[in-house]
Amino acid sequence: MMEEGRKGRYTSSERRLQALVQHLSPSGSSLAGVVQMEVTASGPVGSVFEHVEQAPEDPILGVTVAYNKDPSPIKVNLGVGAYRTEEGKPVILNVVRKAEERLLADRSRYKEYLPITGLADFNKLSAKLIFGKESPALLEKRVATAQCLSGTGSLRVGAEFLAKHYFQRLVFLPAPTWGNHHKIFSNGGLTVKTYRYYDPRTRGLDYQGMVEDIRAAPSGSLILLHACAHNPTGVDPTPEQWEGLRQLIRNKRHLPFFDSAYQGFASGSLDLDALAVRSFVADGGELLVAQSFAKNMGLYGERVGSLSIVCKKEAIATHVESQLKLVIRPMYSNPPIHGASIVATILGDSELYAEWTIELKAMANRIISMRHQLHSAIQARGTPGDWTHILKQIGMFSFTGLNREQVAFMTKEYHIYMTSDGRISMAGLSSKTVPHLADAIHAAVTGLSFSRQ
Amino acid sequence: MAVAVDVSKFESVTMAPPDPILGVSEAFKADSSPLKLNLGVGAYRTEELQPYVLDVVKKAEKLMLESGEFKEYLPIEGLAAFNKATAELLLGADNPVIKQGRIATVQGLSGTGSLRLGAAFIQRYLPGVKVLISSPTWGNHKNILNDSGVPWSEYRYFDPTTVGLDFSGMIEDIKNATDGSIILLHGCAHNPTGIDPTAEQWGTIADVIEEKSHLPFFDVAYQGFASGSLDNDASSVRQFVARGLELFVAQSYSKNLGLYAERIGAINAVVSSSDVANRIKSQLKRLARPMYSNPPVHGARIVANVVGDPSLFDEWRSEMQLMAGRIKGVRQSLYDALSSVDENGKDWSFILKQIGMFSFTGLNKNQSDNMTDKWHVYMTKDGRISLAGLSLAKCEYLADAIIDSYYNVK
C-alpha cells in the first residue's frame, strides 16, 4: 500500500543530465533516439511492487512444467487433461483441419470484432448440441447464450453475472472438483462451499452425503454439477441418482450450474453425455451450463466454449443476454473468432458433423480401452486392493486412490507425472506406457503403506 | 416428474442499455439510407469502405495451416515467442530493460483483456490506489476499472475551446493527485480525441509523474498505426522507460495487424529488477487462470510468425504505412472540404493536428444526433468520428454534415 511517495529516485546529476539531453534534441521531434542514454544505467532504485510474492506454480499446469524439465526417457505425462494418441502425440481432428482449410480458402472472411456475445451461428449450434435440436427451451427462445473462452471463461462470466444479479451468493462445489473451480467462483464474486461427492472407501459416489449436503444448503443456492465425466474422479451419478438429485434441487429451489467439458468424450455418445443437463431442462426449470470444446473437438488452445442460461421466459432471456454483455465487455470486449468458426463450420455441416462423431467416438474408445489395459496390468501384477474403479469411472480422468506420498514416489522413482490428489489422465496413456504405470502403482502400493485418501 | 417453480430466478434482471460504441454499428446496420456512413467503431476500412485483412496475416495463416501445428493449451502467460516479440516491439529489441529481464510480459485478450489483468493486479497489490484517467477517454476504461474494483478519477485532457490538449490542466491534475497514484496514459493516438502530447510535453508529464512517484499505465493500442512507424509511436513509452520509471503497458494488435477478432495483446510490467518482474508475472498468471485459464493461440501465432520472419515483418511495416497514410490522406481531404464549405472561416486545422484513427470533431451531443438523424452519419455521441471509416469520396458529404450540425444545431 502506498503510504508515502518515493521521492528523489535519481541523483541530482542524473536529473541534470536528463534535462540537458532534452535541451539538446530539436524541439517537437520524437525522443526515440535519445533513449540510449545511460542516465539510468542502474535502473530505478526500488520497486513499488517489492511486496509482491512469487505465486506457486498452478498445481495442474505445473505438472506439465515439471514433466518438461525431466530429462528421463521413460517419463510419462498423466497430468493435464489433453488427449494423446496411442503414439503419445497430440492430435488435430481431421474435421478440424478440413474446417480450417475451408475458412482460410473463404475470401469473404474478415477479422472484424465479433459481437460481445460472440459468433451467432456458433452460439445457436452450441446450444443445440447440449440441449438437443428439439429442446423446448430453444424452441421457446428462452435460452441466453454467449460465446466465451472455453469452459473456464464460460464459468467465470456465469459467476460474475450471478454475483451481480442473483440473490444467493453461495455456490456449492463437489468435493473434490477441478482445481480451478474454486478460484473461478471466488474471484467472480461468489462464496464457495462444498458438498460431499467422492467416497474414498468405494472410490465411487457418496450419494447419501451428496443428497444430505444439497438438502442442507440454503434455498436457492447455486449447485455446480459436472454434466458427465466428473473431473478429477471420473465418478458420475447413475441415471436414477440424477433423477433423485433433480427432484431435490428443484424442491429446494436451488439453481443448477452445469460444467459440460466432455460431451461426447465420456461415453462416446453426444446425447448420452447430455442426458443429465437435458433432464433439468425438460422439467421447465432454469439452469446455467458452461460448455467447452477443448476436449471433444481438440481445440484446447483456441479457447472455445459457451455459457447458456435457460430462463423461464423469452423476455427474461433477452434481459439476461443484455446483462451478460455488461460482464463481458470490461473483461475482454468480445471473444476470439478462430475456434468458434471452426466449431460452427463442423456443427453446421452434416458431413463434417458425422465425421466428427466418428472421430470423437474413436477417442472415447481409446480411453476406455486404456482403462481395460491398465486394470488388466494391475491385476496381472497382483497389486493388492480393488482396482475395478478404474473400469467404472468414466472420461478422461481416473481417481486412482493413491495418496500424496505414493504419487511423489511414483514421480521420483518412475517419472510418472500426475496431480498429487491421485488423478491420472487416461488420455495420456498408451499401450506402451501402461506396463510402466502399472509397475509404478504396484511399487507405490506395496512399497509404502496404502492408506485411504 | 417434479416440476420446477413458475417464478424465474431472473425476474428482476433489467434490460441493459446497448454499448455506446458497439451499439453505433448496430444502429448503422438497421439504417436503410444509401447515404449512410459508419464512423462509429474503430476498425480500419479501405477506400472502398471494406474491412481489411492484411496480406501478411493471410500469409502467416497459410504457413500456420501448412505446418500443421498442434492446438495444445498455451501456458497461462501465453505463447513465449509472442511475448518475446511483443516486448521487443514495444521497447526495441536491444533495450537494456529486456536484457536485464526487468519486464514481465503476459499475453492478454487484446487491449481490453490486458488492461483487465493490469487492473485486477492493481486491485490486489495496490489496494485503494486510484487510477487517473483522461477526460475524455475510451469509454470502456471506466467499466474495466469498475468491474475490477479499482477507484478512479479524471485528469483534464481535452480543451473544447482549442479542440486541443488542455496541457496545463492535465499537469495540474496529475500534480494534485495523491503521491503514488496511477496515471493511465494513451501511448499514442489518444482515443477518442486523436490529440497527443508533443515530445516535450511528454517530458514534462514524466517529470511530474516522477516527482509525485506516480505509476504510469500506458494503453498502447495503435503502435505503428498512428504515424506509420512502430518506433515513433512507442517513443512516449520508451522515454519513460529510459528515465528508469516503473510502469505498466497494455498492448493490442487489433488495429496495427488488423487482428481485431483474434483478441491478441499483452500486459507488460517494467520494474526495478528481474526478481520483481518474475514475481509480478507469477501473480498475473494467478489472476488469468480463474478468468480464462490460458489465452487463445491463433492470434499469438500470427504475430509471432509475422514478427519472426524478416520479409513478413518488412511487409507488415509497409502495410501499416499504407493504412496510416490513408488515414492521413483522409484527414487532409476532410480538412480541405471543411475549409472550402465553411463560410465563417472557422479554423478546422485541428483535424490535421490530431493523429490516429479518431478525431474529436468538437460537436456536442445534439449536434452528433443531428449528424445521425439528418445526415445518416453514425458516430459516438461525444463527437468522435472514426477516420478509418471515411473514404476520400465521402469527405465532401461529411463536411456538409459537420458544417450543418455545427452551425445550425445548438
From TrEMBL, chain A:
Protein's name according to its UniProt entry: Uncharacterized protein
Species: Diphasiastrum complanatum
Automatic annotation (TrEMBL), chain B:
Name listed for the protein in its UniProt record: Uncharacterized protein
Highest taxon in the source lineage: Eukaryota
